[in-house]
C-alpha cells in the first residue's frame, strides 16, 4: 500500500499563489492515478484535480480550471498542485489520494494523507 503525505499549505491572501506537494512512500507513485481533493469546514470532501499515470492527461473541477495545475514527478515519487489566483472559497484542507483508475469519484481514491490546510483571506 502506498502512504501519502501532503505539505505546502498555509495562510495566503486572495490573488496569491501556493504549491502543494504530496510525497509517496511504500510503493511507487507511478502505479497510481493521483488526485487532489479538498474539504471546507462543514462540507464534504470534493474533487479538485486528477492526473493519469504518466501525467499525460489531467482533469479539473470547473472552479479551478485555468488557476490550478496538477503535475507529478514519478522519479521523485511526488505529486504537486500549483494554485494561482487563490480565492477565499479555495479555503480548506487539501488531500491527495491514489486510485487504480482515472476517475473524479471520491470513492475510488484511497491512501489519504493527513491533509494540508490552505486558508485564503480576502
Provide a compact summary of the structure.
By secondary structure, this protein is mainly beta. It contains no helices and ten strands. The radius of gyration is 13 Å and the shape is globular.
Task: Describe this structure as you would to a colleague.
The chain has 122 residues and is mainly β. Helices cover 0% and strands 48% of the residues. It has strands at residues 3-7, 10-13, 18-25, 33-39, 46-51, 58-60, 68-73, 78-83, 92-99, 116-121. The chain has a 6-stranded mixed β-sheet, with no helix packed on it. A hairpin with a 4-residue loop joins strand 7 and strand 8 (78-83). The protein starts with a strand and ends with a strand. The model has no long low-confidence stretch (mean pLDDT 96).
First and last CA, distance = 40 Å
- Low confidence ranges: none
SSE succession = EEEEEEEEEE
Q: What is the helix fraction of residues, given as a range?
A: under 10%
- The helix-and-strand class reads mainly beta
Shape: globular
**What composes the largest sheet?**
6 strands, mixed
Write down how many β-strands occur, each being a DSSP E stretch of 2 or more residues.
10
**Mean pLDDT rating:** 96
Number of helices, where a helix is a run of at least 4 consecutive DSSP H or I residues: 0
Gyration radius (Cα, Å) is: 13 Å
Spatially, the strands of the biggest sheet line up as: 2-10-9-4-5-6
User: What amount of the residues lies in strands?
Assistant: over 45%
Amino acid at each position: 500500500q502506498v502512504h501519502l503525505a501532503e505539505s505546502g499549505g498555509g495562510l495566503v491572501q486572495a490573488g496569491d499563489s501556493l504549491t502543494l506537494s504530496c510525497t509517496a512512500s511504500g510503493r511507487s507513485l507511478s502505479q497510481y492515478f493521483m488526485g487532489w481533493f479538498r474539504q471546507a469546514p462543514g462540507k464534504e470532501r470534493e474533487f479538485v484535480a486528477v492526473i493519469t499515470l504518466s501525467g499525460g492527461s489531467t482533469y479539473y473541477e470547473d472552479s479551478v480550471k485555468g488557476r490550478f495545475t496538477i503535475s507529478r514527478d514519478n522519479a521523485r515519487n511526488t505529486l504537486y498542485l500549483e494554485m494561482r489566483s487563490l480565492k477565499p472559497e479555495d479555503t480548506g484542507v487539501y488531500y491527495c489520494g491514489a486510485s487504480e483508475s482515472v476517475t473524479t469519484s471520491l470513492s475510488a481514491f484511497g491512501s489519504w494523507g493527513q491533509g494540508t490546510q490552505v486558508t485564503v483571506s480576502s
